[in-house]
Amino acid sequence: MTIFDENLILETINMIKLHNFDIRTVTLTLSLRDCISENVDIVCDKIQKKLDKYAKNLVKYANDIENDYSIPIVNKRIAVTPISIIGESCTHKDYIKIAQTLDNSARDLGIDFIGGFSALVEKGCTQGDLGLIESIPEALASTQRLCSSVNVASSKAGINMDAVLKMAETIKKSAELTADKDGIGAAKLVVFCNSVSDNPFMAGAYCGYGEPECALNIGVSGPGVVRAAIKDLHKDADMGLLANKIKQTAYKITTTGELVGRKLADKLNIPFGVIDLSLAPTPAVGDSVAQIFQAMGLEHAGAHGTTAALAMLNDAVKKGGIMASSYVGGLSGAFIPVSEDAGMIEAAGNGYLTFDKLEAMTCVCSVGLDMIAIPGDTNITTIAGIIADEMAIGMINKKTTAVRLIPAPGKHVGDVVVFGGLLGEAPIMRVNKLSSANFVNRGGHIPAPIHSLNN
Length: 455
Description:
This protein has helices spanning about 5-15, 15-20, 40-55, 60-70, 85-90, 95-110, 125-140, 160-175, 185, 225-230, 240-270, 290-295, 305-325, 340-350, 355-360, 380-395, 435-440; strands spanning about 20-30, 75-80, 115-120, 145-155, 160, 190-195, 215-220, 270-275, 370-375, 400-410, 415-420, 425, 445. The chain is α/β, with parallel strands linked by helices. The strands form two sheets. Strands 1, 2, 3, 4, 5, 6, 7, 8, 9, 10 and 13 form an eleven-stranded mixed beta sheet that branches. Strand 11 (about 415-420) and strand 12 form a beta hairpin.
């Protein structure tokens, strides 16, 4: 049994008002494997009933715990079995109908986002996978809360370049169908290498095949808390002291997060899954990973040394979380989404942070090229090249990497996209104009590496 240190919890609670500490999400993961049928109407009916059964009290109980402990719970979410699997058995594969069923149920339950409109195609696509991928743009354009993800690569399988090119087309079309909202459809779509089946964060959350019938996963975030802890250190503190301070802070955050997660799981009478300790920023002032780099001593995110600072931050966060709990999972580390981090927005807008520097940083962060707006006229083959590069980083380094690009329709370098809320806003970033077409159009598979020679 986990032993909670009440003094540490109280100390962390005292940071809430000053440093934006919060429970970023409570995510109910739910298997829909028993909803499979040849009739899509039966599938949708089963999905609705199952969501109602397990999630009817999620928002109410989360709000009760938020009030009891005075700890903000920002989002209430659901993640389901990859829908490519659920819809595949239908005689008429109407993935749009399933997408709208999920979205309507989430709306009725008061859920902020529902994830799992997903497919895992690193080794190839079934007819169900292809059907889901082709439906993604319309599904995201016709829903409000639905999030989608597709895994196209892994360290075991290599990179499915046919799927990479297909997803580049899907991203472009998703943005075009939501042009009136700056391409927000693409902001709810992520392409993965080594996707994680217990990740509570959107847009990549889904309930993996090996997950239980139902579980409560929790995502905790506190960039502002970490920044404040670092600023309390003497400016000459060496890197070892700096890393230890981050670990200690992560320990406190994890302890508090697990307490909240277990209380909610008990109230819902479902198992507790994992706690994902990820420094997931928001556009709010003081809730920025980029500002942690400044507290460490860099003039701004993007300065030489940024990648090293991120590597230490990411590792220290994981170590602190592991010390606090035996149930750390998901992604757990530091996110660098451009549009969702006030400091990253500023750095990108001022030209301190380039696309190439962001790609280098993804070698050591917890996700990848996240929430980056690019010109709307960017070629599909260029987008495919960007995805392939990021998938290669994940494949070779045996880590999760992802791409969430927004090719904003009608927007060019110097313009800004505005989504609002947690999705924030972002300047349009310049991409390399050199052609990737002949390379990505080859198709096929980039083979998995020989890991015994990984140097």
